[in-house]
């Protein structure tokens, strides 16, 4: 029997690799004869770089960049030399996880460090970049990235704008004359894990701004600022991408990637499964087990378990999802190829109590599942 284990990370508990390893221990306790393949995944957010490096054997590199608040930070990126391809995870430079709760301020946070990573990739001779969006602390529409790459964002006095989303209200002139010319030869694919547009009630700010520290008043201000940035950008570019599904990813980085880098926006899980050669592993599998911290109705927007289930469904393979919790609407996942889904908790427990036990619980659930699987007629 071939068992494919392809979880995402369990937020604040286990990386995808650690989760897959825990699952494997449980499978092998119940079915020592099983052929087990570990394929840790991600959906474009935090942890995607690790998943890509594990899948492809890319070189992990480090670069001194500025974090979301302009402080120095060591950020990792991946380099696949034989394909001249760079893997760049936004969260490495401008991630929410690098800020304490009282430092979160989308009025001022910036994607400048992401631009620094892209510049390093260009210096290396990159011909392609996979830009992994998600986990951002920012709401600047990618303006900081553009500033790092040479674009000029100027106010009414022809002075450079300060970084951060709120400054975009004062944008008077956008000049791309000094934008790094090497970008014209760079093919960019941007991995997104949401399909939100840039603006409005489903936009970057309204949906994701509060978790980045924005008050209701700041949400309104930032949405106006992004709208103004989109207006100015449309005049300069001759095209308007604000309504594009995924434009609202990572505080509007999806918008900037498409508008200024000519990126194709793809569901992150599809991109990473392609790099991991998931089609081959699914063809060989008799049983697929995936999972992440939470499974609910919003998972259908492009989260890892659903991406796995959809791909497995096309091959008529059974898929079991193990989640830290099952939230509202999770049953809709059955229509997407999920065969069964289980929460990890083995009794009443708080999140604080559950997190340290995640590996143990994953092992136990996988052992039980494989024992049950072995009893099929």
From TrEMBL:
Q: Which GO terms describe its molecular function?
A: glycerate kinase activity
Q: Tell me the keywords, alphabetical order.
A: Kinase, Transferase
Alphabetical list of SUPFAM superfamilies matching this protein: Glycerate kinase I (SSF110738)
Q: Does the keyword Protein transport apply?
A: no
InterPro entries, per the entry: Glyc_kinase_flavodox-like_fold, Glycerate_kinase, Glycerate_kinase_RE-like, Glycerate_kinase_sf
**The UniProt record lists the keyword 4Fe-4S:** no
Task: Name the GO terms of the biological process aspect.
Answer: organic acid phosphorylation
* A Pfam family annotated for this UniProt entry: Gly_kinase
Question: What family is this protein classified in?
Answer: Belongs to the glycerate kinase type-1 family.
Check the record and name the NCBIfam families matching this protein.
glycerate kinase (TIGR00045)
Specify the protein name: Glycerate kinase
* Lineage start: Bacteria, Pseudomonadati, Pseudomonadota, Gammaproteobacteria, Oceanospirillales
């Amino acid at each position: 029997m071939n068992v494919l284990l392809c979880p995402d990370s369990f937020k604040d508990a286990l990386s995808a690799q650690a989760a897959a390893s825990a699952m494997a221990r449980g499978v092998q306790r119940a079915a020592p004869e099983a052929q087990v393949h570990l394929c840790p995944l991600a959906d474009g957010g935090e942890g995607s770089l690790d998943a890509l490096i594990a899948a492809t054997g890319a070189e992990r590199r480090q670069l001194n960049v500025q974090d979301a608040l302009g402080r120095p930070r060591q950020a990792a990126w991946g380099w696949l030399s034989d394909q001249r391809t760079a893997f760049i995870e936004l969260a490495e430079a401008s991630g929410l996880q690098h800020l304490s709760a009282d430092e979160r301020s989308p009025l001022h946070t910036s994607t400048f460090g992401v631009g620094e990573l892209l510049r390093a990739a260009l210096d290396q001779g990159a011909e392609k970049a996979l830009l992994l969006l998600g986990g951002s602390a920012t709401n600047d529409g990618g303006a900081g990235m553009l500033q790092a790459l040479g674009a000029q964002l100027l106010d009414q006095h022809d002075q450079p704008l300060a970084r951060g989303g709120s400054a975009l209200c004062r944008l008077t002139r956008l000049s791309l004359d000094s934008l790094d010319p090497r970008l014209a030869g760079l093919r960019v694919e941007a991995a997104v894990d949401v399909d939100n547009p840039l603006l409005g009630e489903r936009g970057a700010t309204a949906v994701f701004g509060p978790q980045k520290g924005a008050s209701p008043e700041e949400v309104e201000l930032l949405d106006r600022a992004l709208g103004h940035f989109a207006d100015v950008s449309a005049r300069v570019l001759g095209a308007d991408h604000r309504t594009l599904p995924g434009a609202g990813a990572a505080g509007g980085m999806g918008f900037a990637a498409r508008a200024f880098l000519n990126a194709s926006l793809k569901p992150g899980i599809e991109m990473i499964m392609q790099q991991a050669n998931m089609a081959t592993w699914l063809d060989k599998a008799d049983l697929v087990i995936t999972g992440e911290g939470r499974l609910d109705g919003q998972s259908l927007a492009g989260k890892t378990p659903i991406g796995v289930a959809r791909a497995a469904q096309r091959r008529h393979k059974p898929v079991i999802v193990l989640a830290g919790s099952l939230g509202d609407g999770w049953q809709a996942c059955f229509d997407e190829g999920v065969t069964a889904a289980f929460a990890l908790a083995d009794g009443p427990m708080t999140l604080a109590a559950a997190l340290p036990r995640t590996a143990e619980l994953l092992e136990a659930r996988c052992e039980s599942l494989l024992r049950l699987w072995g009893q099929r007629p």
